[in-house]
Amino acid sequence: MTDRTPAVPAGPAIALADATLSYGPRTLWSGLTVNVRPGEFLAVLGPNGAGKTSLLKVLLGVQSLSSGTVTVAGSPARTGNPRVGYIPQQKTLEAGITMRGRDLVGLGVDGHRWGPGLAGRRRRRAAVDAAVKAVGAERYADAPVGLLSGGEQQRLRVAQALAGDPAVLLCDEPLLSLDMANQQRVARLIDERRRSADTAVLFVTHEINPILPMVDRVLYLVDGRFRIGTPDEVMTSEVLSELYRTEVDVLRVRGRLVVVGSGDGIDEARTAEVDEAACAGHDIGHTHDHEVSR
Ligand SMILES: Nc1ncnc2c1ncn2[C@@H]1O[C@H](COP(=O)(O)OP(=O)(O)OP(=O)(O)O)[C@@H](O)[C@H]1O
Ligand SMILES: [Mg+2]
User: Domain named ABC transporter: which ranges (predicted)?
Assistant: First the structure.
């Protein structure tokens, strides 16, 4: 009726339909149907080896599905799609790498978008500067990346992914090796990005608490089984016990989730410590306020 109504409703940013991924005889997951809306924040959780990184590789077009279909930003998943930003699971860069941080960020910028010539180069440089500033990396952006700390490198990777102005942002444990302040900073940055630009975010993590307020839905993968829903629907004792096939308790302590269990891949959070922290009114230890260990 109004001219603000789009003629064609925007399709999902990510669409997986009846997707199966097997490596040889081993099936990581099957029958996975997920539509991620533009601007939606989907957290992907699960123990080591559940197939979280493999899922991102499918979305990046570097790994084919065994069956089913996948579209990303409106077209079949393919490598080199400039509409897709990617923060890879952390690997420390070799000390010998002499590329400057600013150049690493620049690799994420789609050159064509800024136009040719001097003006284009200026606009491109401005985009890199803005991304460097957004992650607070100005101090070390001109140093060789191989000499930076793991957390500093990680912030540059985040800047690189955001500099590309992605419609879909795929993040593989992006908070690893960041201190608490920078975890908050990066999480907020990604949250702002999806709110301001309608970027769909798929966020693989072992620690849901730093992003809990931002998460719309959770996809939880365990040994071929999965559940998808809001955190309240998925992060329950009942659902996690079913997924892990062992007794798991999900505790809510001062707005945080603590998962307690003894199965493979479940953090054995010490309940005594949790109780003590809750009673004493201080924060639970940094290593036990999350749900699944690596
Ligand atoms: N190309 C491949 N060929 C065969 N097996 C593979 C391949 N890539 C990954 N795998 C196996 O598939 C399983 C899932 O790997 P993946 O990296 O997706 O796990 P993940 O959920 O990301 O785990 P983590 O939490 O440790 O990062 C692992 O057991 C891994 O060894
Ligand atoms: Mg992984």
Answer: 14-248
User: What tens-digit pLDDT sequence spans the chain (294 residues)?
Assistant: 444 555 555 789 999 999 999 999 999 999 999 999 999 999 999 999 999 999 999 999 999 999 999 999 999 999 989 899 999 887 777 888 888 999 889 888 865 666 677 888 888 899 999 999 999 999 999 999 999 998 899 999 999 999 988 999 999 999 988 899 989 989 999 999 999 999 999 999 999 999 999 999 999 999 999 999 999 999 999 999 999 999 999 999 988 999 998 766 665 443 434 444 444 433 333 333 444 433
| C-alpha 49 to ligand 1 mean position (Å) | 5
User: In one letter, which amino acid is 6?
Assistant: P
Asked whether the beta carbons of 163 and 106 are under 8 A apart, the reply is yes
CA geometry: angle 47, 171, 100, nearest 5 deg: 125
Q: How far is the CA of 29 from the centre of ligand 1 (A)?
A: 11
